[in-house]
Amino acid sequence: MTALELTSAVAVVGTGTMGQGIAQVALVAGHPVRLYDAAPDRARAAADAIGARLDRLVEKGRLTPEDRAAAAGRLTAAESPTELAGCGLVVEAVLEQLDVKQRLFQELEEIVDESCLLATNTSSLSVTAVAGGLRVPGRFVGLHFFNPAPLLPLVEVVSGFATDEATATRAYETAKAWGKTPVRCADTPGFIVNRVARPFYAEALRLYEERVADPATIDAVLRECGGFRMGPFELTDLIGQDVNEAVTRSVWDSFFQDPKFTPSLAQRRLVESRRLGRKSGQGWYAYGDDAPRAEPHTAEPAKAPESVAVHGDLFPADALLDLIGRAGIRVTRAEGVPSSPGFLELPGGTRLAPADGTAADAAAGPTVHFDLALDYRAATRIALSPSGRVDERGLAEAVGLFQALGKKVSVIGHAPGMIVARTVWMLVDFALDAVGREVAAAEDVDTAMRLGVNYPLGPVEWGRRLTAYRVAEALDMLNDEYPTGRYAPSQALRRQAVREEYS
Fold first, then answer.
1. Residues of the chain under the 70 pLDDT cut
2. Domain range for residue 316?
3. What is the per-residue pLDDT for 137?
4. Which terminus, N or C, of the chain has the lesser number of Cβ atoms within 10 Å?
5. Would the pTM of this model clear 0.90, i.e. be above it?
6. How far apart are CA 203 and CA 466, in angstroms?
7. 483 in any annotated domain
8. Which residues belong to the active site?
């Protein structure tokens, strides 16, 4: 099955920001495009707005004047749904209300040809449910673009329960022909991105609610240590707290209030107070020319220890040993039975250990946990969580050690799994669970998370680097600390852990 022919007209119903963006994508790809909106004159205004965007593309040298003129000639505003007859594809981008979408497609089904593909751009509703009232639901598919549609490459091609394979394939090939990067997925709450991404927000909110760290510090650690483009607090301020919380609640309800998807009370209070983020001038942060900039907690300079003793294997944190040696700090290997998990022993007797699923206070002796980094060499910040038995000298040696490696240090409260580590473990678990349930292929999950939300690494690949065995072990520890089922490893993660252990 090939992509929709360029001679086939594409109709876009709903001419808000997303509808205009999708129409522009189809138009620039070479299709005739027909715009329709139930509100009078909205389609004509949208056509004018798209024309203005094409003018800006010409000014930036991304579109020739000749191509702009040709595109404008292919764009029409429809006054009635009957003018959409003869289109090869209709994409809907109207209100996220199930009954509204169902009525629209039932009307369209009586107008367009039997060969016309019908697609919804819904981000939160069931594709299967939207198609539920159609006589021929096999030609119905989800085409979930990301905003702004002309710029972001990802398109989730969502097969409802009744979607024909040929329909999904044609939609996929069409999105690809439009210069997008499509991924295929089953109709599940949140599809790929909004399902797998929930822990990125949820773990940060939980850490805040437990007063482990403030939003600016959590954001900074996830950016500067975890390698994420934006922290969850600044990102939800950008998205809109009401929008982000609505998606979280929708996914939670759709999964019958599974504890893994539990919304945040702190975010609910933010929405109730109308602190919605950038668009309201106040969210987790204040916005405006005179708004003070929130700064992350950063430890004062401390003297580095002269030596450290290595016990056991630090696994991904082994890269620190070379950095420590290069900083002029003597590294020795402790004799005897290797410790598992490994740790660094500081001169004062404090242990410096990679984050696991337990709080530092659960360790046998004075222990400072340090967070997971995407790349310990490139990371510019590290988070430390000391147990109550760590004295002033022990904490100063831990802080001084990482400062000697060129890292800023954020000391946070008692937090099983720290910040980056528990976030990444949960992302890995959610990703493997989606793959295991055949929501999408592993490579499509990773592609979706890298392109849809700019993750530095696909969570499936991150799981391979960390190993499923260690991720499952860490989540089991977290599940002991928080016995609600939220952190219980998925069956897919457990199966992968077993395969790795015995391979």
1. 1, 336-340, 503
2. 307-411
3. 96
4. C
5. yes
6. 19
7. no
8. 123, 144, 156, 194
